[in-house]
Design goal:
By secondary structure, the protein is mostly helical. The protein is built from 17 helices and two strands. The longest helix is centred in the first third of the chain and has 38 residues. The N terminus is likely disordered. It holds the Pfam family Aa_trans.
């Protein structure tokens, strides 16, 4: 049903308007605030937290923890503003179930197309590649412990992960993944706890590397690394589907998402700060972009933590990575299939083969890029700078200023303007720093190699 028809029907029946995206998607608006908190936690709390010690490495103890706290506060505030804008639209009779629909309503269709859709695609592609690469990296690390002279390389494990995703991603829709949320939350808490404990064991081990927390002596290197670290921190807190999560709340949703945010950020405090502090404390400026590489160093041939602890952590990380990749893949599939298969008169069965082929080809393309550029930490930095910073920080603030129109001299307007200026600058410089790091790594490593970042 076209959007105008939905609105007309709602107006005629005295009911709340729901956008066309919500009407066509499998969204059940019957959830509670704590269920929304679980969804929010699952969508945000991913294995990108394994890059947190690497982010602290580029900033040092004081500035690193301050930046982590500042990014947490700003992203919480930005998500709160998105929720306020959604509540404002709902009160006016327009309830949105997609970020791009909300942006089109508030900013106009051209803004939504140029900003939100483009950025969402960048995030979906970046997170999918990063998930495939990190999953393969964990498998390769485990394999190298049991077969140091084995013939399998990182790209072989990328292919294995891609095959699993190609099969599981044939599930019909994002709604069909709804049962993973609670399990994914428990898995996330489990592996972050295990990784933190493993880092503490490694730091206390006699085989641990000397702890050196000094920064680079080059001013330019320190500057680029610092901005790269901020981009990584932003990507860790990134969540591009808050409107989709709020759409699951039973109406009226006003105020419920704030409780969900408080719940999820309480979990983030434990899941992000502990591995960040433990990993940086244990390895200092020698920590790798994936802290699991530091716990299982290839040059020594022995792990720095109990084998059972690391093995269980790897299993949980793999499960979470598959869950995250499936979520972001489904969002991308919905966008592609709406364009390619919309308006087709053929039945669902006749579209099965082209959909299977399309999804398998997309996963294969992502796997090809992941195998070609094995630099997980720097990929996270690119996603944070060109994806999460604009979508999760800048655009929500702009939408709030447009939709709720605070007075220009009010504290809210001044704070929002300051956030826009600061994070546009951080995103631009962080993007340059991330691309620079990728170029440096691409020059140092061969394509399709066992790259170590």
């Amino acid at each position: 049903m076209p959007s105008s028809d939905v609105e007309a029907a709602a107006a005629g029946n005295g009911k709340q308007t729901v956008d066309a995206g919500a009407a066509s998607s499998a969204v059940e608006s019957r959830g509670t605030w704590w269920q929304a908190g679980f969804h929010m936690t699952t969508a945000t709390l991913g294995p990108a937290s394994l890059s947190l010690p690497y982010a602290l490495r580029g900033l040092g103890w004081a500035l690193g923890l301050a930046a982590l706290t500042a990014v947490a506060a700003v992203t919480f505030y930005a998500y709160f503003l998105v929720s306020r804008v959604l509540d404002h639209c709902e009160a006016a009779g327009r309830r949105h179930a997609r970020f791009r629909d909300l942006a089109a309503d508030v900013l106009g269709s051209k803004w939504a197309t140029c900003l939100v859709v483009t950025v969402q695609v960048a995030i979906n592609v970046g997170i999918s590649i990063g998930s495939i690469l990190l999953a393969a990296d964990c498998l390769e690390l485990t394999y190298s412990r049991h077969a140091p002279n084995g013939s399998l390389k990182l790209y072989h494990f990328v292919i294995m992960v891609a095959l699993v995703l190609a099969v599981l991603s044939q599930l019909p829709s994002l709604h069909s993944l709804r049962h993973i949320n609670v399990g994914s939350l428990l898995v996330s808490i489990g592996y972050t706890t295990l990784v933190s404990a493993a880092c503490i064991c490694a730091g206390l081990s006699s085989d641990a590397p000397a702890k050196d927390y000094s920064l680079s002596t080059s001013r330019s290197e320190r500057t680029f690394t610092a901005f790269l670290s901020v981009s990584i921190l932003t990507s860790v807190f990134g969540n591009s589907i808050l409107p989709e999560i709020q759409a699951t709340l039973a109406p009226p949703a006003g105020g419920k998402m704030t409780k969900a945010l408080v719940l999820s950020y309480s979990v983030f405090f434990l899941a992000f700060y502990f591995p960040a502090i433990a990993g940086y404390w244990a390895f200092g400026n020698q920590v790798r972009s994936n802290v699991m590489q530091s716990l299982l160093p290839a040059d020594t041939g022995s792990s720095l933590a109990p084998a059972w602890m690391l093995g269980l952590a790897v299993v949980l990380i793999l499960l979470q990575l598959i869950a995250i990749a499936l979520v972001y893949l489904q969002v991308t599939y919905e966008m592609m299939e709406r364009k390619l298969f919309a308006g087709g008169k053929a039945g669902r069965r006749s579209l099965l083969a082209p959909r299977v082929a399309l999804r398998a080809a997309y996963v294969a393309a992502l796997a090809f890029v992941a195998a070609m550029l094995p630099f997980f930490g720097e990929i996270q930095g690119v996603v944070g700078s060109v994806g999460y910073i604009p979508l999760d920080v800048v655009i929500p603030v702009v939408m709030y200023n447009v939709a709720l129109a605070p007075r220009r001299r009010s504290p809210a307007y001044v704070a929002n303007a300051a956030i826009i200026v600061a994070f546009v600058g951080l995103g631009a410089i962080g993007g340059v720093a991330s691309v620079r790091k990728l170029v440096l790594n691409a020059d140092r490593f061969k394509l399709f190699s066992n790259g170590r970042s």
